């Protein structure tokens, strides 16, 4: 579905090539909400009557949801609430009388007029715009993609090839103003910048606090580990100290199992006698 961008009193208005209007964009520009229009009792009655009439004429539309289409996600140019051409005109009357007249003319031109929206401009036709963008990058220190993004946003297109032929001169003029005047360039919001810095400071303090707590816990763990190592060393010393006695006891037990008590008694006596002769 191709997006067609037109301008009403300097405000970008998006249509699809089937006449559907992006109501979200224009309502926001005129400080109104699409939801307020859709909640009106007369609007709901109109939508019901329109669905009934269209179904009688063999139109595939059979539900209100096909008249009011809400798109979320995907390309930014496709997001918003899109209204059927007939609903768009009724919505336009609710917004503004002058906009209603203009919107009606635009939809008629899109559906029945002579404008060739599907025919893209040629590279030669866009040469002036490319030259203007190059001048903008040189004078304002922008990258080419940044400069082209400004043009895309201004004319609500994805590529400069999508800019209607009759708006190319306006696009060139817009880029020249950016290059020469500069005040139309996006400016950084100092309040937001400062708020961002505050968040960074808070994050840094939080990390320092958490790091300090972890350091103290680590020190406590190491102290406990030292105590356990001391206890382990004492246990090892005790094992080594009594290891000989345990071994002797095991040997004697083995002898007891192998020899009678009389032999064991005689053996001990002989051992004592030998020891006394030394």
Automatic annotation (TrEMBL):
Residues annotated as coiled-coil are none
- SMART domains assigned: KilA-N (SM01252)
- PROSITE patterns recorded: KILA_N
Q: Which GO terms describe its molecular function?
A: DNA binding
Question: Per the database record, which ranges form the KilA-N domain?
Answer: 2-110
Q: Which Pfam families match?
A: KilA-N (PF04383)
Protein name per Swiss-Prot or TrEMBL:
KilA-N domain
Organism of origin: Suttonella ornithocola
